[in-house]
Amino acid sequence: MAKTKARVKAPKSAKKGEAFQVKTLISHKMESGQRKDKKTGKKIPRHIINKFVCTYNGKQVFSADWHPAISANPYMSFFVKAADSGTLEMAWTDDKGKTMKKSTKIKVS
Amino acid sequence: MKKAYLGVLTLGAVAMIAATFVSNAFADSDFGKYAVGDIRSGYTYMTKESKAIQDDDFENPAMLWLEDGEQVWGKVDGKAGKSCASCHGSASDSMKGVAATYPKYDKKLKKLKNIEQQINICRTERMGAKPFKYESKQMLGTTIYVRNQSRDMPMNVSIDDEAAPFFAKGKAFFNGRRGALDMACKHCHEDNAGNYARANLLTQGQTNGFPTYRFKWQKPGSTHRRFRGCNKNIRAQPLKYGSDEYVNLELYVAWRGRGLPVETPAVRN
User: Fold this and answer.
1) Where are the domains of chain A?
2) Tens of pLDDT along B95-112?
3) Which residue in chain A has the smallest CA separation from B61?
């Protein structure tokens, strides 16, 4: 498997108090733990992203617990209210404890 | 005529398909650029939610593979110390229109080749690199990247001269019955496009969006993966990836979709 890839799309600038949309997409196989290896008959261990968190200047503004029914390459979009200029950081944590991060900057006027 | 046909299928113990071919009233809809005359892209058969995922390049998960392909394009690999870009330069210029004309006749091979095979010919002969495995991440990514450069250009394959005998073979494959269900491609994709086979809305089986991100696969897949899936569904022995029969079929199916815009990477269910 190649490296995990994450994409984040949010406006570069917003007006204070305005709600803006953040779109995120990450490549992950999201192995549900329900499947069996066809050759060996053994269960393929669950390996999914179970937690998604978005922080805005260090403060958590959005989070989600994901479960095995979430599809591979999960897409998530949500709205955030513009407060101050700064950084939005997304973090995806998977079952192996690995956290993938991606951030984007926003200017608030 | 249609009733008799269904009857035969039922007798053939085809519980799965015999259930229903229910008509789907789509008459007089405007499909915009996704249809040319009676030729309709698979896009027009999808729900608006699925269409929305294809319409937004950010939401389209196949774009993750396209990024892989873009990296492969510029990466030096093999003994010759070359990348795709060393010969072809910027893909947005050199690969523009390529997807619309493949599969193509190759004088040296004396048969057709598709884009996947051309990529591996370049890799082995010019770059001195290892060929990509057919359905690998790199192969899908590179194919998507190359085909994406022709997005919205009309499909326009050559079926004349040297390609003609291969086109005829592809056509024969499309119309030929096979498998335990004794069905041909045309039974679903020509005679019953727009009807349901159980819950599944049959399309014309156009290839203008391949490699396509399929929700069922949870990743993109090649035309040949789709062919194999269809062959399995009619209980026929699927052929090998890149086999001559499938490349010939690919040409015939591309010709059936002549004029449709290249949609790569499309999203389908």
Assistant:
1) 6-33+44-108
2) 999 999 999 999 999 999
3) A73
- Which of B49, B59, B72 has the highest number of chain A CBs within 10 A, making it the mutation to test binding with A? B59
Q: What is the DSSP letter of B110?
A: T
The residues of B that are catalytic are 230
DSSP letters spanning B60-85: -THHHHHHHHHHHHH--BTTTTB-HH
Residues of B with CB under 8 A from a CB of A: 58-59, 61, 63-64, 67-68, 137, 215, 218-219
A75: nearest CB among B59, B67, B68: B59
The ipTM, to two decimals, is 0.79
**What domains, with CATH codes, occur in chain B?**
2-57+156-268 (1.10.760.10), 62-148 (1.10.760.10)
Contact, B262 vs B208, CB < 8 A?
Answer: yes
Digit-coded pLDDT (tens) for A76-88: 999 999 988 999 9
Query: For A6-33+44-108, which CATH superfamily applies?
Result: Immunoglobulins (2.60.40.10)
Q: Which of B59, B68, B219 sits opposite A2 (nearest CB)?
A: B68
Query: What pTM value is reported for the model?
Result: 0.84
| Tokens representing residue B139 in the block | 């192969």
Residues B72, B37: Cα–Cα separation, whole Å: 38
